[in-house]
Protein backbone atom coordinates (compact mmCIF):
# COMPACT_ATOMS: atom_id res chain seq x y z
CA UNK A 1 0.00 0.00 0.00
CA UNK A 2 1.38 3.41 -0.97
CA UNK A 3 1.62 6.13 1.63
CA UNK A 4 -1.94 6.60 2.84
CA UNK A 5 -1.26 10.20 3.82
CA UNK A 6 -0.77 11.17 0.16
CA UNK A 7 -4.25 9.95 -0.79
CA UNK A 8 -7.19 12.28 -1.19
CA UNK A 9 -10.21 11.88 1.06
CA UNK A 10 -12.23 10.49 -1.86
CA UNK A 11 -9.52 7.92 -2.58
CA UNK A 12 -9.33 6.96 1.08
CA UNK A 13 -13.10 6.63 1.22
CA UNK A 14 -12.97 4.22 -1.72
CA UNK A 15 -10.18 2.15 -0.15
CA UNK A 16 -12.13 2.00 3.10
CA UNK A 17 -15.37 1.08 1.36
CA UNK A 18 -13.68 -1.76 -0.52
CA UNK A 19 -12.04 -2.76 2.79
CA UNK A 20 -8.56 -2.63 1.31
CA UNK A 21 -7.54 -0.63 4.35
CA UNK A 22 -9.08 -0.01 7.75
CA UNK A 23 -9.83 3.34 9.31
CA UNK A 24 -7.42 2.47 12.11
CA UNK A 25 -4.65 2.06 9.52
CA UNK A 26 -5.52 5.33 7.80
CA UNK A 27 -5.82 7.20 11.07
CA UNK A 28 -2.58 5.75 12.43
CA UNK A 29 -0.77 6.71 9.20
CA UNK A 30 -1.79 10.31 9.72
CA UNK A 31 -0.91 10.24 13.42
CA UNK A 32 2.53 8.92 12.44
CA UNK A 33 2.93 11.70 9.90
CA UNK A 34 1.90 14.24 12.54
CA UNK A 35 4.49 12.86 14.94
CA UNK A 36 7.12 13.11 12.23
CA UNK A 37 6.54 16.63 10.91
CA UNK A 38 4.74 18.54 13.65
CA UNK A 39 8.05 19.71 15.07
CA UNK A 40 8.67 21.54 11.81
CA UNK A 41 5.15 22.66 10.90
CA UNK A 42 3.30 23.17 14.18
CA UNK A 43 -0.16 22.84 12.65
CA UNK A 44 -1.84 21.43 15.77
CA UNK A 45 -2.51 22.89 19.18
CA UNK A 46 -3.90 19.65 20.60
CA UNK A 47 -3.89 16.10 19.32
CA UNK A 48 -6.45 13.45 20.12
CA UNK A 49 -4.54 10.25 19.43
CA UNK A 50 -6.54 7.87 21.59
CA UNK A 51 -9.93 9.35 20.73
CA UNK A 52 -9.15 9.31 17.01
CA UNK A 53 -8.07 5.69 17.05
CA UNK A 54 -11.10 4.71 19.12
CA UNK A 55 -13.40 6.47 16.64
CA UNK A 56 -11.61 4.75 13.77
CA UNK A 57 -11.95 1.34 15.42
CA UNK A 58 -15.64 1.95 15.90
CA UNK A 59 -16.10 2.75 12.20
CA UNK A 60 -14.17 -0.38 11.26
CA UNK A 61 -16.39 -2.47 13.52
CA UNK A 62 -19.54 -1.00 12.03
CA UNK A 63 -18.27 -1.65 8.52
CA UNK A 64 -17.33 -5.21 9.42
CA UNK A 65 -20.84 -5.70 10.73
CA UNK A 66 -22.14 -4.83 7.29
CA UNK A 67 -23.54 -1.43 8.23
CA UNK A 68 -24.14 1.02 5.40
CA UNK A 69 -21.88 3.95 6.33
CA UNK A 70 -21.69 7.56 5.14
CA UNK A 71 -19.28 8.18 2.25
CA UNK A 72 -16.42 9.68 4.29
CA UNK A 73 -16.74 7.29 7.24
CA UNK A 74 -13.31 6.39 8.52
CA UNK A 75 -11.48 9.30 6.88
CA UNK A 76 -9.71 11.32 9.61
CA UNK A 77 -10.02 15.06 9.92
CA UNK A 78 -8.47 18.02 11.73
CA UNK A 79 -10.65 20.74 13.26
CA UNK A 80 -9.76 24.40 13.76
CA UNK A 81 -9.51 25.17 17.45
CA UNK A 82 -12.23 27.81 17.27
CA UNK A 83 -14.80 25.00 16.93
CA UNK A 84 -15.82 23.46 20.25
CA UNK A 85 -15.32 19.74 20.78
CA UNK A 86 -16.90 18.02 23.75
CA UNK A 87 -14.32 16.62 26.12
CA UNK A 88 -11.41 17.91 24.03
CA UNK A 89 -9.50 21.08 24.85
CA UNK A 90 -10.64 24.09 22.81
CA UNK A 91 -8.78 27.39 23.15
CA UNK A 92 -9.28 29.47 19.98
CA UNK A 93 -5.50 29.89 20.34
CA UNK A 94 -6.03 32.24 23.29
CA UNK A 95 -4.53 32.21 26.78
CA UNK A 96 -7.93 33.21 28.10
CA UNK A 97 -9.26 29.75 27.16
CA UNK A 98 -6.10 27.76 27.88
CA UNK A 99 -7.09 24.27 29.03
CA UNK A 100 -10.82 24.82 28.55
CA UNK A 101 -12.73 21.58 27.94
CA UNK A 102 -16.13 22.30 26.38
CA UNK A 103 -19.13 20.41 27.75
CA UNK A 104 -20.75 20.19 24.31
CA UNK A 105 -20.03 19.66 20.61
CA UNK A 106 -20.51 22.20 17.86
CA UNK A 107 -23.20 21.02 15.48
CA UNK A 108 -20.68 20.48 12.71
CA UNK A 109 -18.54 18.37 15.05
CA UNK A 110 -21.57 16.28 15.96
CA UNK A 111 -22.13 15.76 12.23
CA UNK A 112 -18.50 14.73 11.73
CA UNK A 113 -18.77 12.22 14.55
CA UNK A 114 -22.07 10.85 13.24
CA UNK A 115 -20.56 10.50 9.76
CA UNK A 116 -17.68 8.53 11.27
CA UNK A 117 -14.75 10.92 10.71
CA UNK A 118 -12.11 10.44 13.43
CA UNK A 119 -10.92 13.81 14.78
CA UNK A 120 -7.12 13.90 14.79
CA UNK A 121 -6.81 17.10 16.79
CA UNK A 122 -7.36 20.84 16.91
CA UNK A 123 -5.45 23.11 14.59
CA UNK A 124 -3.59 26.31 15.29
CA UNK A 125 -4.99 29.68 14.27
CA UNK A 126 -4.76 33.37 14.92
CA UNK A 127 -6.21 34.08 18.36
CA UNK A 128 -10.02 34.12 18.09
CA UNK A 129 -9.52 33.96 14.30
CA UNK A 130 -8.13 37.48 14.22
CA UNK A 131 -5.35 37.64 11.67
CA UNK A 132 -4.11 36.66 8.24
CA UNK A 133 -0.90 34.87 9.14
CA UNK A 134 -1.36 32.61 12.22
CA UNK A 135 1.30 34.76 13.88
CA UNK A 136 -1.27 35.95 16.41
CA UNK A 137 -1.73 32.56 18.05
CA UNK A 138 -0.97 32.77 21.76
CA UNK A 139 0.81 29.44 21.44
CA UNK A 140 3.24 30.22 18.62
CA UNK A 141 2.97 30.31 14.85
CA UNK A 142 2.33 27.56 12.33
CA UNK A 143 4.81 27.29 9.46
CA UNK A 144 4.07 27.01 5.76
CA UNK A 145 5.09 23.55 4.49
CA UNK A 146 6.30 25.16 1.24
CA UNK A 147 8.80 27.33 3.11
CA UNK A 148 9.10 27.07 6.86
CA UNK A 149 10.23 30.70 7.07
CA UNK A 150 6.89 31.84 5.71
CA UNK A 151 3.38 32.19 7.10
CA UNK A 152 0.71 29.60 6.28
CA UNK A 153 -1.98 32.25 5.95
CA UNK A 154 -4.56 33.01 8.56
CA UNK A 155 -6.52 32.75 10.57
CA UNK A 156 -6.84 29.10 9.58
CA UNK A 157 -3.14 28.54 8.95
CA UNK A 158 -3.09 25.41 11.08
CA UNK A 159 -5.87 23.70 9.15
CA UNK A 160 -4.33 24.59 5.78
CA UNK A 161 -0.82 23.56 6.84
CA UNK A 162 -2.07 20.26 8.28
CA UNK A 163 -3.63 19.40 4.93
CA UNK A 164 -0.66 20.69 2.90
CA UNK A 165 1.82 18.75 5.07
CA UNK A 166 -0.18 15.52 4.64
CA UNK A 167 -0.96 15.39 8.34
CA UNK A 168 -4.69 15.28 7.61
CA UNK A 169 -6.61 14.67 4.38
CA UNK A 170 -9.37 17.03 5.49
CA UNK A 171 -9.77 19.93 7.90
CA UNK A 172 -12.40 22.33 9.12
CA UNK A 173 -11.82 26.07 8.89
CA UNK A 174 -13.81 29.20 9.56
CA UNK A 175 -13.93 32.22 7.27
CA UNK A 176 -14.88 35.69 8.50
CA UNK A 177 -12.96 37.71 5.93
CA UNK A 178 -11.09 34.98 4.06
CA UNK A 179 -9.66 32.75 6.79
CA UNK A 180 -10.38 29.53 4.89
CA UNK A 181 -9.61 30.76 1.37
CA UNK A 182 -6.46 32.83 1.97
CA UNK A 183 -4.60 30.08 3.90
CA UNK A 184 -5.66 27.62 1.21
CA UNK A 185 -4.21 29.96 -1.43
CA UNK A 186 -0.80 30.33 0.19
CA UNK A 187 -0.41 26.62 1.04
CA UNK A 188 -1.55 25.14 -2.28
CA UNK A 189 -4.70 23.61 -0.83
CA UNK A 190 -8.43 23.95 -1.48
CA UNK A 191 -10.74 25.85 0.85
CA UNK A 192 -14.41 26.70 0.59
CA UNK A 193 -16.55 29.24 2.38
CA UNK A 194 -20.16 28.06 2.00
CA UNK A 195 -23.11 30.41 1.59
CA UNK A 196 -23.70 32.26 4.87
CA UNK A 197 -25.97 30.04 6.96
CA UNK A 198 -25.18 26.95 4.90
CA UNK A 199 -23.21 25.38 7.75
CA UNK A 200 -24.39 25.83 11.33
CA UNK A 201 -22.42 28.27 13.48
CA UNK A 202 -23.62 26.64 16.71
CA UNK A 203 -20.50 25.83 18.70
CA UNK A 204 -18.20 28.13 16.77
CA UNK A 205 -16.54 30.63 19.10
CA UNK A 206 -17.88 33.72 17.38
CA UNK A 207 -15.78 36.58 16.10
CA UNK A 208 -18.20 38.53 13.88
CA UNK A 209 -21.54 36.76 13.75
CA UNK A 210 -22.82 38.29 10.53
CA UNK A 211 -19.64 37.28 8.69
CA UNK A 212 -18.42 34.01 10.24
CA UNK A 213 -18.87 30.82 8.25
CA UNK A 214 -17.34 27.37 8.76
CA UNK A 215 -16.27 25.31 5.81
CA UNK A 216 -13.99 22.61 4.39
CA UNK A 217 -10.23 22.57 3.77
CA UNK A 218 -8.82 19.80 1.58
CA UNK A 219 -6.41 18.99 -1.23
CA UNK A 220 -9.01 18.63 -3.97
CA UNK A 221 -12.22 20.35 -4.97
CA UNK A 222 -14.12 17.06 -4.77
CA UNK A 223 -12.93 16.47 -1.21
CA UNK A 224 -14.17 19.89 -0.15
CA UNK A 225 -17.53 19.23 -1.78
CA UNK A 226 -17.84 15.85 -0.02
CA UNK A 227 -17.01 17.39 3.36
CA UNK A 228 -19.33 20.34 2.71
CA UNK A 229 -22.17 17.85 2.22
CA UNK A 230 -21.37 16.26 5.60
CA UNK A 231 -21.32 19.47 7.65
CA UNK A 232 -23.96 21.48 5.79
CA UNK A 233 -27.69 21.71 6.38
CA UNK A 234 -30.25 23.26 8.65
CA UNK A 235 -29.69 23.41 12.39
CA UNK A 236 -32.46 24.52 14.75
CA UNK A 237 -29.76 25.60 17.21
CA UNK A 238 -28.59 28.37 14.84
CA UNK A 239 -31.35 30.83 14.03
CA UNK A 240 -29.46 32.07 10.95
CA UNK A 241 -29.10 28.56 9.58
CA UNK A 242 -30.60 28.16 6.10
CA UNK A 243 -33.35 25.61 5.65
CA UNK A 244 -32.23 24.74 2.12
CA UNK A 245 -31.19 21.13 1.47
CA UNK A 246 -27.49 20.48 0.88
CA UNK A 247 -26.66 18.14 -1.94
CA UNK A 248 -25.33 17.85 -5.46
CA UNK A 249 -22.03 19.45 -4.49
CA UNK A 250 -19.86 16.38 -5.08
CA UNK A 251 -21.72 15.71 -8.31
CA UNK A 252 -20.96 19.28 -9.39
CA UNK A 253 -17.29 18.84 -8.48
CA UNK A 254 -17.15 15.83 -10.81
CA UNK A 255 -18.38 17.86 -13.82
CA UNK A 256 -16.26 17.66 -16.93
CA UNK A 257 -17.21 20.66 -19.02
CA UNK A 258 -18.21 24.27 -18.71
CA UNK A 259 -20.25 24.69 -21.85
CA UNK A 260 -22.43 27.75 -21.52
CA UNK A 261 -21.02 28.82 -18.16
CA UNK A 262 -20.35 32.55 -17.98
CA UNK A 263 -17.26 33.34 -15.91
CA UNK A 264 -16.96 36.96 -14.79
CA UNK A 265 -13.57 38.55 -14.11
CA UNK A 266 -13.97 41.19 -11.41
CA UNK A 267 -11.94 44.12 -12.67
CA UNK A 268 -11.52 45.57 -9.16
CA UNK A 269 -9.86 42.37 -7.87
CA UNK A 270 -6.58 42.04 -9.68
CA UNK A 271 -5.04 45.42 -10.32
CA UNK A 272 -2.54 47.35 -8.28
CA UNK A 273 -0.94 45.51 -5.40
CA UNK A 274 -1.23 42.09 -6.99
CA UNK A 275 2.09 40.30 -7.37
CA UNK A 276 2.95 39.83 -11.09
CA UNK A 277 3.33 36.07 -10.68
CA UNK A 278 -0.08 35.91 -9.02
CA UNK A 279 -1.65 37.77 -11.92
CA UNK A 280 0.07 35.55 -14.49
CA UNK A 281 -1.13 32.38 -12.79
CA UNK A 282 -4.65 33.78 -12.64
CA UNK A 283 -4.68 34.74 -16.32
CA UNK A 284 -3.48 31.30 -17.32
CA UNK A 285 -6.26 29.66 -15.31
CA UNK A 286 -8.83 31.90 -16.99
CA UNK A 287 -7.54 30.77 -20.40
CA UNK A 288 -8.00 27.16 -19.31
CA UNK A 289 -11.59 27.91 -18.34
CA UNK A 290 -12.13 29.43 -21.76
CA UNK A 291 -10.69 26.30 -23.38
CA UNK A 292 -13.18 24.22 -21.39
CA UNK A 293 -16.07 26.04 -22.99
CA UNK A 294 -16.66 28.85 -20.52
CA UNK A 295 -17.59 32.29 -21.76
CA UNK A 296 -15.33 34.89 -20.16
CA UNK A 297 -16.87 38.28 -19.39
CA UNK A 298 -15.55 41.34 -17.60
CA UNK A 299 -17.63 42.66 -14.70
CA UNK A 300 -17.19 45.71 -12.51
CA UNK A 301 -18.00 45.88 -8.81
CA UNK A 302 -17.03 49.45 -7.90
CA UNK A 303 -18.12 49.20 -4.26
CA UNK A 304 -15.59 46.44 -3.64
CA UNK A 305 -13.04 49.23 -3.24
CA UNK A 306 -14.81 50.13 0.01
CA UNK A 307 -15.23 46.56 1.28
CA UNK A 308 -12.07 46.51 3.36
CA UNK A 309 -13.01 49.74 5.13
CA UNK A 310 -16.53 48.51 5.84
CA UNK A 311 -15.23 45.17 7.03
CA UNK A 312 -12.88 46.81 9.52
CA UNK A 313 -15.79 48.57 11.15
CA UNK A 314 -18.32 45.74 11.14
CA UNK A 315 -15.90 42.99 12.16
CA UNK A 316 -14.43 44.63 15.30
CA UNK A 317 -17.82 46.00 16.33
CA UNK A 318 -19.32 42.52 16.33
CA UNK A 319 -16.14 41.02 17.81
CA UNK A 320 -16.13 43.45 20.72
CA UNK A 321 -19.67 42.38 21.51
CA UNK A 322 -19.05 38.65 21.06
CA UNK A 323 -15.91 38.63 23.17
CA UNK A 324 -17.67 40.28 26.11
CA UNK A 325 -18.48 36.77 27.29
CA UNK A 326 -14.85 36.23 28.28
CA UNK A 327 -15.24 37.78 31.69
CA UNK A 328 -13.39 35.34 33.95
CA UNK A 329 -16.58 34.22 35.65
CA UNK A 330 -17.93 31.02 34.07
CA UNK A 331 -15.08 29.49 32.08
CA UNK A 332 -11.51 30.03 31.10
CA UNK A 333 -8.94 32.19 32.83
CA UNK A 334 -9.53 34.24 35.98
CA UNK A 335 -6.94 36.80 37.05
CA UNK A 336 -7.21 38.98 40.15
CA UNK A 337 -5.90 42.54 40.02
CA UNK A 338 -2.43 43.07 41.47
CA UNK A 339 -3.68 45.84 43.73
CA UNK A 340 -6.94 47.47 44.78
CA UNK A 341 -10.33 45.91 45.39
CA UNK A 342 -11.14 42.44 44.09
CA UNK A 343 -14.55 42.83 42.50
CA UNK A 344 -16.27 41.34 39.48
CA UNK A 345 -15.37 44.43 37.49
CA UNK A 346 -11.70 44.58 38.42
CA UNK A 347 -11.28 40.82 37.98
CA UNK A 348 -12.86 41.04 34.52
CA UNK A 349 -10.51 43.85 33.49
CA UNK A 350 -7.45 42.07 34.85
CA UNK A 351 -8.46 38.77 33.25
CA UNK A 352 -9.03 40.32 29.83
CA UNK A 353 -5.86 42.41 30.09
CA UNK A 354 -3.81 39.30 30.83
CA UNK A 355 -5.70 36.80 28.70
CA UNK A 356 -6.12 38.58 25.36
CA UNK A 357 -3.27 39.10 22.92
CA UNK A 358 -2.41 42.38 21.21
CA UNK A 359 -4.50 41.86 18.06
CA UNK A 360 -7.57 40.88 20.06
CA UNK A 361 -7.21 43.94 22.28
CA UNK A 362 -6.75 46.12 19.21
CA UNK A 363 -9.97 44.89 17.64
CA UNK A 364 -12.02 45.06 20.83
CA UNK A 365 -10.86 48.62 21.46
CA UNK A 366 -11.63 49.65 17.88
CA UNK A 367 -15.00 47.91 17.98
CA UNK A 368 -15.99 49.44 21.29
CA UNK A 369 -14.94 52.83 19.97
CA UNK A 370 -16.98 52.32 16.78
CA UNK A 371 -20.07 51.37 18.75
CA UNK A 372 -19.78 54.04 21.43
CA UNK A 373 -22.01 57.09 21.65
CA UNK A 374 -21.38 59.62 18.91
CA UNK A 375 -19.62 57.23 16.56
CA UNK A 376 -22.22 54.54 15.87
CA UNK A 377 -23.94 56.17 12.88
CA UNK A 378 -20.77 57.48 11.27
CA UNK A 379 -18.86 54.23 11.66
CA UNK A 380 -21.02 51.14 12.08
CA UNK A 381 -24.11 52.55 10.37
CA UNK A 382 -22.13 53.76 7.37
CA UNK A 383 -20.36 50.44 7.04
CA UNK A 384 -23.74 48.72 6.89
CA UNK A 385 -24.61 50.95 3.94
CA UNK A 386 -21.49 49.87 2.10
CA UNK A 387 -22.66 46.34 2.69
CA UNK A 388 -25.84 47.19 0.77
CA UNK A 389 -23.79 48.59 -2.10
CA UNK A 390 -21.63 45.48 -2.24
CA UNK A 391 -24.69 43.25 -2.33
CA UNK A 392 -26.01 45.35 -5.21
CA UNK A 393 -22.70 44.99 -7.05
CA UNK A 394 -22.87 41.24 -6.64
CA UNK A 395 -26.46 41.16 -7.89
CA UNK A 396 -25.53 43.17 -10.98
CA UNK A 397 -22.43 41.08 -11.66
CA UNK A 398 -24.32 37.80 -11.28
CA UNK A 399 -26.83 39.04 -13.85
CA UNK A 400 -23.99 38.96 -16.38
CA UNK A 401 -22.00 36.00 -15.07
CA UNK A 402 -22.72 32.65 -13.42
CA UNK A 403 -19.61 32.81 -11.27
CA UNK A 404 -17.03 35.50 -10.55
CA UNK A 405 -13.30 34.84 -10.40
CA UNK A 406 -10.19 36.58 -9.05
CA UNK A 407 -6.87 35.75 -7.45
CA UNK A 408 -7.64 34.67 -3.86
CA UNK A 409 -4.85 36.71 -2.32
CA UNK A 410 -2.80 39.55 -3.82
CA UNK A 411 0.52 37.94 -2.92
CA UNK A 412 2.02 34.58 -2.11
CA UNK A 413 2.99 33.69 1.47
CA UNK A 414 5.08 36.39 3.11
CA UNK A 415 7.82 35.93 5.69
CA UNK A 416 7.16 35.86 9.41
CA UNK A 417 7.12 39.29 10.98
CA UNK A 418 6.98 41.09 7.66
CA UNK A 419 3.59 42.70 8.30
CA UNK A 420 3.17 42.32 12.06
CA UNK A 421 3.81 45.99 12.76
CA UNK A 422 1.48 47.25 10.07
CA UNK A 423 -2.13 46.13 10.66
CA UNK A 424 -3.36 47.67 7.42
CA UNK A 425 -0.78 45.83 5.32
CA UNK A 426 -1.85 42.63 7.06
CA UNK A 427 -5.52 43.35 6.44
CA UNK A 428 -4.88 43.93 2.71
CA UNK A 429 -4.31 40.18 2.33
CA UNK A 430 -8.04 39.74 2.60
CA UNK A 431 -8.99 42.38 0.03
CA UNK A 432 -10.25 39.85 -2.54
CA UNK A 433 -12.00 37.58 -0.06
CA UNK A 434 -13.88 40.06 2.16
CA UNK A 435 -16.67 41.08 -0.27
CA UNK A 436 -18.07 37.52 -0.19
CA UNK A 437 -18.38 37.64 3.60
CA UNK A 438 -20.14 41.00 3.56
CA UNK A 439 -22.68 39.71 1.05
CA UNK A 440 -22.89 36.12 2.35
CA UNK A 441 -22.07 34.52 -1.00
CA UNK A 442 -20.02 31.31 -1.24
CA UNK A 443 -16.37 31.28 -2.30
CA UNK A 444 -13.83 28.63 -3.21
CA UNK A 445 -10.07 28.84 -3.48
CA UNK A 446 -8.04 26.25 -5.36
CA UNK A 447 -4.39 26.30 -6.40
CA UNK A 448 -3.75 27.66 -9.89
CA UNK A 449 0.00 27.14 -9.95
CA UNK A 450 3.20 28.63 -8.62
CA UNK A 451 4.16 32.28 -8.74
CA UNK A 452 7.51 33.66 -9.90
CA UNK A 453 8.84 32.99 -6.39
CA UNK A 454 7.97 29.29 -6.53
CA UNK A 455 5.12 29.60 -4.03
CA UNK A 456 1.47 28.59 -4.54
CA UNK A 457 -1.16 30.94 -5.91
CA UNK A 458 -4.86 30.66 -5.15
CA UNK A 459 -7.70 31.06 -7.65
CA UNK A 460 -10.99 32.27 -6.18
CA UNK A 461 -14.43 31.37 -7.53
CA UNK A 462 -17.50 33.16 -6.15
CA UNK A 463 -21.09 32.11 -6.77
CA UNK A 464 -24.47 33.60 -5.84
CA UNK A 465 -25.90 32.75 -2.42
CA UNK A 466 -27.26 29.19 -2.28
CA UNK A 467 -25.50 28.32 -5.56
CA UNK A 468 -22.46 26.68 -3.97
CA UNK A 469 -22.63 23.87 -6.54
CA UNK A 470 -21.60 26.30 -9.28
CA UNK A 471 -18.24 27.05 -7.69
CA UNK A 472 -17.54 23.36 -7.20
CA UNK A 473 -18.41 22.71 -10.85
CA UNK A 474 -16.08 25.40 -12.19
CA UNK A 475 -13.41 24.52 -9.63
CA UNK A 476 -13.58 20.82 -10.43
CA UNK A 477 -13.09 21.37 -14.15
CA UNK A 478 -10.26 23.86 -13.65
CA UNK A 479 -8.51 21.55 -11.19
CA UNK A 480 -8.66 18.66 -13.67
CA UNK A 481 -7.13 20.79 -16.43
CA UNK A 482 -4.39 22.17 -14.20
CA UNK A 483 -3.51 18.79 -12.72
CA UNK A 484 -3.18 17.37 -16.22
CA UNK A 485 -0.76 20.18 -17.08
CA UNK A 486 1.28 19.63 -13.94
CA UNK A 487 1.28 15.87 -14.31
CA UNK A 488 0.02 15.46 -10.75
CA UNK A 489 -1.08 17.45 -7.73
CA UNK A 490 0.66 20.79 -7.15
CA UNK A 491 1.54 19.72 -3.61
CA UNK A 492 3.87 17.09 -5.07
CA UNK A 493 6.16 20.01 -5.93
CA UNK A 494 6.43 21.17 -2.32
CA UNK A 495 9.80 20.45 -0.73
CA UNK A 496 10.02 17.34 1.41
CA UNK A 497 9.70 18.18 5.06
CA UNK A 498 12.47 17.08 7.31
CA UNK A 499 11.11 14.17 9.26
CA UNK A 500 12.09 14.12 12.90
CA UNK A 501 13.01 10.87 14.53
CA UNK A 502 10.57 9.66 17.13
CA UNK B 1 -4.91 63.94 11.81
CA UNK B 2 -5.24 61.95 14.96
CA UNK B 3 -8.74 60.61 15.51
CA UNK B 4 -8.16 58.18 18.37
CA UNK B 5 -6.15 59.70 21.22
CA UNK B 6 -4.54 57.89 24.11
CA UNK B 7 -7.28 59.31 26.32
CA UNK B 8 -9.93 57.82 24.05
CA UNK B 9 -8.18 54.44 24.05
CA UNK B 10 -8.09 54.54 27.86
CA UNK B 11 -11.77 55.48 28.00
CA UNK B 12 -12.77 52.72 25.60
CA UNK B 13 -10.56 50.18 27.37
CA UNK B 14 -12.44 50.97 30.58
CA UNK B 15 -15.75 50.47 28.76
CA UNK B 16 -14.49 47.19 27.31
CA UNK B 17 -13.18 46.08 30.73
CA UNK B 18 -9.63 45.47 29.56
CA UNK B 19 -6.77 46.49 31.84
CA UNK B 20 -4.10 48.06 29.61
CA UNK B 21 -0.67 49.34 30.55
CA UNK B 22 0.25 52.94 29.63
CA UNK B 23 2.57 51.53 27.01
CA UNK B 24 -0.24 49.48 25.47
CA UNK B 25 -2.52 52.52 25.44
CA UNK B 26 0.02 54.63 23.58
CA UNK B 27 0.78 51.90 21.10
CA UNK B 28 -2.87 51.16 20.39
CA UNK B 29 -3.61 54.86 19.89
CA UNK B 30 -0.98 54.96 17.15
CA UNK B 31 -2.17 51.76 15.50
CA UNK B 32 -5.87 52.50 15.64
CA UNK B 33 -5.26 55.88 14.08
CA UNK B 34 -4.20 54.21 10.86
CA UNK B 35 -7.32 52.12 10.78
CA UNK B 36 -9.58 55.02 11.67
CA UNK B 37 -8.13 56.98 8.75
CA UNK B 38 -8.88 54.15 6.39
CA UNK B 39 -12.42 53.65 7.54
CA UNK B 40 -13.21 57.30 6.93
CA UNK B 41 -13.43 56.17 3.31
CA UNK B 42 -16.72 54.50 4.08
CA UNK B 43 -18.44 57.84 4.37
CA UNK B 44 -17.54 58.66 0.76
CA UNK B 45 -20.30 56.34 -0.47
CA UNK B 46 -22.56 55.87 2.57
CA UNK B 47 -25.04 58.50 1.48
CA UNK B 48 -28.47 59.00 3.12
CA UNK B 49 -30.30 57.35 0.21
CA UNK B 50 -28.53 54.00 0.79
CA UNK B 51 -30.29 51.71 3.27
CA UNK B 52 -28.15 49.86 5.79
CA UNK B 53 -27.84 46.06 5.68
CA UNK B 54 -27.00 44.40 8.96
CA UNK B 55 -26.85 40.85 7.75
CA UNK B 56 -26.22 38.85 4.57
CA UNK B 57 -29.62 37.17 4.69
CA UNK B 58 -32.97 38.62 5.80
CA UNK B 59 -33.47 37.83 9.47
CA UNK B 60 -36.76 36.62 10.82
CA UNK B 61 -37.67 35.57 14.30
CA UNK B 62 -37.38 31.83 14.76
CA UNK B 63 -39.86 29.96 16.92
CA UNK B 64 -39.80 26.45 18.23
CA UNK B 65 -42.10 24.30 20.29
CA UNK B 66 -41.65 24.71 24.04
CA UNK B 67 -40.27 21.23 24.58
CA UNK B 68 -38.07 19.91 27.31
CA UNK B 69 -34.68 18.95 25.88
CA UNK B 70 -31.46 17.66 27.33
CA UNK B 71 -29.38 20.35 29.01
CA UNK B 72 -25.65 20.56 29.56
CA UNK B 73 -24.22 18.39 32.28
CA UNK B 74 -23.82 20.56 35.38
CA UNK B 75 -20.68 18.79 36.57
CA UNK B 76 -19.02 19.20 33.16
CA UNK B 77 -19.90 22.89 33.08
CA UNK B 78 -18.65 23.47 36.61
CA UNK B 79 -15.47 21.54 35.92
CA UNK B 80 -14.54 24.20 33.38
CA UNK B 81 -15.33 27.15 35.65
CA UNK B 82 -12.54 29.16 37.28
CA UNK B 83 -14.25 28.59 40.63
CA UNK B 84 -17.41 26.72 41.56
CA UNK B 85 -19.26 25.97 44.75
CA UNK B 86 -22.25 23.68 45.31
CA UNK B 87 -23.02 23.46 41.61
CA UNK B 88 -22.87 27.22 41.14
CA UNK B 89 -20.34 29.64 39.70
CA UNK B 90 -18.38 31.35 42.46
CA UNK B 91 -17.70 34.94 41.42
CA UNK B 92 -15.91 37.89 43.01
CA UNK B 93 -17.90 40.40 44.99
CA UNK B 94 -20.52 42.15 42.83
CA UNK B 95 -22.79 44.03 45.24
CA UNK B 96 -21.70 46.64 47.74
CA UNK B 97 -18.41 47.26 46.00
CA UNK B 98 -18.22 50.77 47.46
CA UNK B 99 -18.88 49.54 50.98
TrEMBL record, chain A:
GO annotation, biological process: translation
SUPFAM superfamilies: Amidase signature (AS) enzymes
GO cellular component, one term: glutamyl-tRNA(Gln) amidotransferase complex
GO molecular function terms noted in the UniProt entry: ATP binding; glutaminyl-tRNA synthase (glutamine-hydrolyzing) activity; transferase activity
Signal peptide (residue range): none
UniProt keyword list: ATP-binding, Ligase, Nucleotide-binding, Protein biosynthesis, Transferase
EC number from the UniProt entry: 6.3.5.7
Location of the Amidase domain: 25-470
Pfam families membership: Amidase (PF01425)
Top-level taxon: Bacteria
Residues forming the catalytic site: 80 (charge relay system), 155 (charge relay system), 179 (acyl-ester intermediate)
Catalytic activity: L-glutamyl-tRNA(Gln) + L-glutamine + ATP + H2O = L-glutaminyl-tRNA(Gln) + L-glutamate + ADP + phosphate + H(+)
Family, as annotated: Belongs to the amidase family. GatA subfamily.
Oligomeric form and interacting partners: Heterotrimer of A, B and C subunits.
Record's function text: Allows the formation of correctly charged Gln-tRNA(Gln) through the transamidation of misacylated Glu-tRNA(Gln) in organisms which lack glutaminyl-tRNA synthetase. The reaction takes place in the presence of glutamine and ATP through an activated gamma-phospho-Glu-tRNA(Gln).
Name the record gives this protein: Glutamyl-tRNA(Gln) amidotransferase subunit A
Source species of the chain: Georgenia soli
Gene: gatA
Automatic annotation (TrEMBL), chain B:
Xref: SUPFAM superfamilies: Glu-tRNAGln amidotransferase C subunit (SSF141000)
EC number: 6.3.5.-
Protein name: Aspartyl/glutamyl-tRNA(Asn/Gln) amidotransferase subunit C
Statement: the UniProt record of this protein carries the keyword ATP-binding: yes
Alphabetical keyword list: ATP-binding, Ligase, Nucleotide-binding, Protein biosynthesis, Transferase
Pfam families in the cross-refs: GatC (PF02686)
Described purpose of this protein according to its UniProt entry: Allows the formation of correctly charged Asn-tRNA(Asn) or Gln-tRNA(Gln) through the transamidation of misacylated Asp-tRNA(Asn) or Glu-tRNA(Gln) in organisms which lack either or both of asparaginyl-tRNA or glutaminyl-tRNA synthetases. The reaction takes place in the presence of glutamine and ATP through an activated phospho-Asp-tRNA(Asn) or phospho-Glu-tRNA(Gln).
Assigned protein family: Belongs to the GatC family.
Enzyme class, spelled out: ligase
Coiled-coil intervals: none
Listed InterPro entries: Asp/Glu-ADT_sf_sub_c, GatC
Taxonomic lineage from the root: Bacteria, Bacillati, Actinomycetota, Actinomycetes, Micrococcales
Gene from which the chain derives: gatC
Subunit-structure text: Heterotrimer of A, B and C subunits.
Catalytic reaction annotation: L-aspartyl-tRNA(Asn) + L-glutamine + ATP + H2O = L-asparaginyl-tRNA(Asn) + L-glutamate + ADP + phosphate + 2 H(+); L-glutamyl-tRNA(Gln) + L-glutamine + ATP + H2O = L-glutaminyl-tRNA(Gln) + L-glutamate + ADP + phosphate + H(+)
Organism of derivation: Georgenia soli
One example GO MF annotation: transferase activity
GO BP: any one term: regulation of translational fidelity
